[in-house]
């Protein structure tokens, strides 16, 4: 029988999770490798479709895609809309500041009174706004926009997904920005693969395959390939 | 500069893919908005109060809601009512409806600019409303309507970028994808701006030509 | 039976009572000129006759059919009563011949070839055989007005209404248009002409109406009314128009 | 429905915060675009070829580039050249410049619609170019320009939502924030649409009034 | 020295040679009427005199000053040579009085009160004392044209150019405007009048020019040229205008 091909919605939040490889013009990254391996194991092919983060859940619930494989945290409100697989990878927010600022911030309290920036759609917006520590929390569309403004001095610090920030700074982009090593994330979450609530059969298959791949080291191999540790 | 060129060569093929969809969405919604706009305009000038009222209400409502919100409804909310469209279909319909309001105002202005004497001359040779429109008013309104029509085309071309919010992988979305993957925002946005400009320039020249040709008397 | 009958016609624009009871009739073959000061309602009464305006009370009949601009019968009236306007109102996007055949082809559904043959004949008759393919903007005012007359004739009307057909023309072009109108009158066309050309009225009209403030202030045979007006207002008006200085 | 109402009560205060910035950005860019647009229009009709050429090139370039890209440049790229603006400043300047192109075309159309005879009458009483513009042309063009000016206001109101891309926390951005944290997309977008509609309706009525007042003759 | 001198003036619009060598002069206090068929260049030559159009060759002088529309001196010429247009060209957004004082106040910088007093006087003189506060759309054509004449007079000009000042008027309103013009002539105003009112030319003009095809085809004292034209084209033109039918 012809292998079933499922549509996978993803969003290029950035290297290493998912991104557009401009050399090959394909979506690459941890989540793509992972869903491809899962598909191999569970017996379905995948076709990755890029879209804006904010369109992912709507596209899934309106049957335009079958799977979300993106750097999407498993959260309560999201779980009311869709189902998630077991956690794939766990991480939190990273804090970055201009290189000229050598202070070692450990928590939000140390940043009190500064203007900070954060990416729209991430889980970090609400805690920052609710903390009441900052005169202004600026909301950005993309991480590079935040880094530009840290560079330009419009904001004193930025928050974004740690692995993405780490990877990009490691690659030598934005040399004037540094990651604060000692900072403890305010939110730690796990990303998972999302499916429609009505698709419990698919979810079962994905979870089974995911467990198997964790067991046999495939997951670890993928993570290492993209410079992440378990 | 060196880097800009290298990056451009790498990014352009991806952006050009998006350009194809930009053109499809623009062309599709242009056709739809023209047809719908003409319908509203004819209803407005029909002299039938009910029709005029419906058209007016519709046009005003549409004009008051940002396109992005209209697109969202058509793509994400209509499926709840059992109408599920592809992203490109939804973009064409959404932009088409949104712009039909502008088209309608443009057509109406063109129709109303025709001298009353033309209608009267048509009536005295026994023409009814339909014949008067078809043979006398619309052919003349055409010339008046053309220059602003060109401007609407330019606006649509640019506003097609809003289709990116409902997953249409057109130029702007491709640009965003590259930007967030490579962090080369400046390069990407410059390229995107240049590509839009390249598509607009023929249109702008066309409008200028039309204005010289028809605008003055 | 008179061809056109007006019986106590009234018409207001808002509070402005423009026509205040006009009763008259026009027989077949008759040429009636309407004169009167600006704003006296000359255009309005003409426009009521072929239903370009509605009227408030009284009745207007054409060959016995009531003229009612909202009834279906209005098309029949309009194809039989043509109108020529002060500002010509030619269709600017069509040639002289196309202007002329527009009604016959699209309203009366005559075969195009027949309509064209007839149209050429009519253009020749108004002295424009060589302007068949010209667009209105390529024609002088006098030529445009003659095309407009040909367009009216193309409907083979039983009567033609003229609303100041020469007022928008350069003085030296007036003669050509008046000559065409006179020839129509000579051939027995029923005509109602609003005009300030007193000379034309005197020579061509059977009857003249002097309108003032929406009523017929004086009415009579052309020679008599224009030479010996009885109403002092008619006299004053004629003096002003004939001897402006 | 019950849920919608409950959510609305929760979301509205947050959205209203954004509405304040929407109004500030719209008003600011309206003033700027009007001033600049008038400048371009006067340059276009000045009769001085160099000025007319500069204005034309500028207007056409601006018209060809999506607003979102212009905003990006002004906010994110200008700091590289040492010009660092706040987000609201950048939004007002970006939208103001982008819309000055539309304003300019509108003003030019209004000026050119005035009968040549008016200019000649002004000249024969000895008026120069400036006096003719100020005392004769502009006061008359004003009435012609008003109805389309109202339409531009409505468009600006909606396009101010694009300021969200450069961190201005206006209505659309507040909407996105709520939507991405609560996933009540339908409710949020409906509220956002209604709020825009509420702001547009007075403008639409105003335009209708102006058209009745000045549009016809 | 004549007030206005034209010496071999030529003017083309593209390939259309509209003025082909016109030489004439107008003395202080003289009234010159220009007649001629449509398109003969009557308006163009008038517009050249106060610099609304440029000319290609020859010279035009006003009191010895060359008329050059690109020179600064043109403002001085224009404040001394007023013009009255066929279509009035009143400023529609200003009242009659405001139209009249616009030039004195904003160009000549007279105190507003003085200009207003003078303006009222002028409006009274053209018979519109009761229309001081009316806007142009509230006035009849004849009234508008009289306001336009008052506006021209308000500049205290040395000469006034009239371009068919009564052609756009209803026939019964022509007389009032002509009467005002005659009274100006009687008081010694220098006037150049393009007109089709042959009666006015005959009674008021000192001299008449017949323009045809951009040249002066005939020129002479009014009584003589209008009664016994020597040029057959003048004769033909006069016949068409005087006896249209
Ligand atoms: N469509 C209209 N709406 C309102 N008032 C009108 C309309 N048409 C004409 N009138 C008014 O009706 C009156 C008579 O107008 P009408 O055009 O019949 O006069 P007229 O005798 O033809 O004058 P003229 O010689 O100036 O053409 C005028 O006071 C005019 O203002
Ligand atoms: N601005 C212009 N551009 C091009 N051609 C023009 C212009 N003004 C006038 N003409 C042409 O110049 C010629 C003479 O025009 P002008 O207006 O001087 O004639 P006129 O004698 O005043 O005629 P009329 O009695 O119709 O007013 C005409 O052929 C006209 O088409
Ligand atoms: Mg009339
Ligand atoms: Mg002229």
TrEMBL record, chains B, D:
Main location: membrane
GO molecular function terms noted in the UniProt entry: transmembrane transporter activity
Gene3D superfamilies registered for this protein in UniProt: MetI-like (1.10.3720.10)
Stored PROSITE patterns: ABC_TM1
Keyword Signal: no
Protein species of origin: Microvirga aerophila
SUPFAM superfamilies attached to this UniProt entry: MetI-like
Entry similarity comment: Belongs to the binding-protein-dependent transport system permease family. HisMQ subfamily.
Subcellular location: Cell inner membrane; Cell membrane
Top-level taxonomy: Bacteria, Pseudomonadati, Pseudomonadota, Alphaproteobacteria, Hyphomicrobiales
CDD domains: TM_PBP2
The ABC transmembrane type-1 domain, residue ranges: 19-207
Keyword Transmembrane helix: yes
Gene Ontology CC terms, in alphabetical order: ATP-binding cassette (ABC) transporter complex
Protein name from the UniProt record: Amino acid ABC transporter permease
GO biological process, one term: amino acid transport
Coiled coil: none
Annotated membrane topology: Multi-pass membrane protein
Keyword annotations from UniProtKB, A to Z: Amino-acid transport, Cell membrane, Membrane, Transmembrane, Transmembrane helix, Transport
Transmembrane segments: 21-42, 188-208
NCBIfam families associated with the record: HEQRo_perm_3TM
Automatic annotation (TrEMBL), chains C, E:
Membrane topology term: Peripheral membrane protein
Subcellular location: Cell membrane
SUPFAM superfamilies: P-loop containing nucleoside triphosphate hydrolases (SSF52540)
InterPro entries: AAA+_ATPase, ABC_ATPase_HisP-typ, ABC_transporter-like_ATP-bd, ABC_transporter-like_CS, MetN_ABC_transporter-like, P-loop_NTPase
Principal location: membrane
Claim: ATP-binding is one of the keywords in the record: yes
Protein name, per record: Arginine ABC transporter ATP-binding protein
């Amino acid at each position: 029988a012809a292998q079933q091909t499922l549509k996978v919605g993803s969003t290029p939040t950035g290297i290493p999770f998912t991104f557009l490889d401009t050399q090959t013009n394909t979506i690459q990254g941890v989540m793509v490798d992972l869903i491809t391996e899962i598909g191999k194991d569970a017996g379905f092919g995948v076709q990755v479709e890029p879209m804006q983060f904010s369109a992912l859940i709507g596209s899934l619930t309106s049957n335009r895609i079958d799977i979300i494989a993106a750097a999407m945290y498993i959260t309560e409100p999201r779980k009311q809309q869709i189902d998630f697989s077991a956690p794939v990878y766990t991480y939190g927010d990273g804090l970055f500041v201009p290189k000229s600022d050598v202070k070692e911030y450990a928590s939000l309290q140390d940043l009190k009174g500064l203007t900070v920036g954060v990416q729209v759609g991430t889980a970090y917006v609400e805690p920052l706004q609710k903390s009441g520590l900052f005169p202004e929390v600026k909301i950005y569309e993309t991480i590079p926009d935040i880094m530009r403004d840290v560079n330009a001095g419009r904001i004193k610090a930025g928050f974004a997904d740690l692995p993405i920030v780490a990877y990009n700074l490691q690659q030598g982009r934005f040399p004037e920005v540094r990651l604060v090593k000692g900072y403890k994330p305010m939110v730690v979450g796990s990303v998972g693969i999302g499916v429609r609530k009505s698709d419990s059969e698919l979810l079962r298959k994905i979870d089974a395959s995911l467990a198997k791949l964790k067991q046999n080291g495939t997951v670890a191999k993928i993570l290492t390939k993209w410079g992440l540790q378990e | 500069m060196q880097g800009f060129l290298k990056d451009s060569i790498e990014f352009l093929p991806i952006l050009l893919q998006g350009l194809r969809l930009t053109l499809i969405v623009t062309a599709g919604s242009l056709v739809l908005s023209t047809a719908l706009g003409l319908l509203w305009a004819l209803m407005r000038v029909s002299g039938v109060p009910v029709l005029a009222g419906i058209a007016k209400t519709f046009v005003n409502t549409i004009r008051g809601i940002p396109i992005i919100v209209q697109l969202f409804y058509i793509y994400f909310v209509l499926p709840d009512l059992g109408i599920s469209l592809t992203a490109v279909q939804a973009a064409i319909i959404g932009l088409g409806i949104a712009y039909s309001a502008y088209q309608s105002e443009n057509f109406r202005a063109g129709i109303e600019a025709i001298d009353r004497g033309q209608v009267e001359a048509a009536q005295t040779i026994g023409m009814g409303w339909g014949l008067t429109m078809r043979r006398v008013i619309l052919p003349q309104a055409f010339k008046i309507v053309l220059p602003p029509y060109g401007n609407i085309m330019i606006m649509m071309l640019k506003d097609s970028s809003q289709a990116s919010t409902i997953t249409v992988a057109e130029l702007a979305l491709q640009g965003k994808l590259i930007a967030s993957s490579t962090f080369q925002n400046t390069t990407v946005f410059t390229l995107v701006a240049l590509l839009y400009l390249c598509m607009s320039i023929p249109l702008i020249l066309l409008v200028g030509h039309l204005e010289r040709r028809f605008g003055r008397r | 039976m008179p061809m056109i009958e007006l019986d106590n016609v009234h018409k207001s624009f808002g509070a402005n009572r423009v026509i205040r009871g006009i009763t008259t009739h026009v027989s077949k073959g008759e040429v009636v000129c309407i004169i009167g000061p600006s704003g006296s309602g000359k255009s309005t009464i003409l426009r009521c006759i072929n239903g370009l305006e509605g009227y408030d009370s009284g009745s207007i009949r054409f060959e016995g059919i009531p003229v009612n601009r909202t009834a279906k019968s209005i098309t029949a009236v309009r194809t039989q009563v043509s109108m020529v306007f002060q500002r010509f109102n030619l269709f600017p996007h069509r040639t002289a011949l196309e202007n002329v055949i527009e009604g016959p082809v699209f309203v009366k559904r005559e075969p195009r070839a027949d309509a064209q043959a007839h149209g050429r004949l009519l253009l020749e008759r108004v002295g424009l055989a060589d302007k068949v393919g010209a667009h209105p903007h390529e024609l002088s005012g006098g030529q445009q007005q003659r095309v407009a007359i040909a367009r009216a004739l193309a409907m083979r009307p039983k009567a033609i209404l003229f609303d100041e057909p020469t007022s928008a023309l350069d003085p030296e072009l007036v003669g050509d248009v008046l000559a065409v109108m006179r020839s129509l009158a000579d051939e027995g066309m029923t005509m109602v002409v609003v005009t300030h050309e007193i000379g034309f009225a005197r020579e061509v009209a059977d009857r003249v109406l002097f309108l003032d403030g929406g009523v017929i202030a004086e009415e009579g045979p052309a020679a008599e009314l224009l030479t010996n007006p009885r109403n002092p207002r008619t006299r004053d008006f004629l003096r002003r128009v004939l001897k402006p200085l």
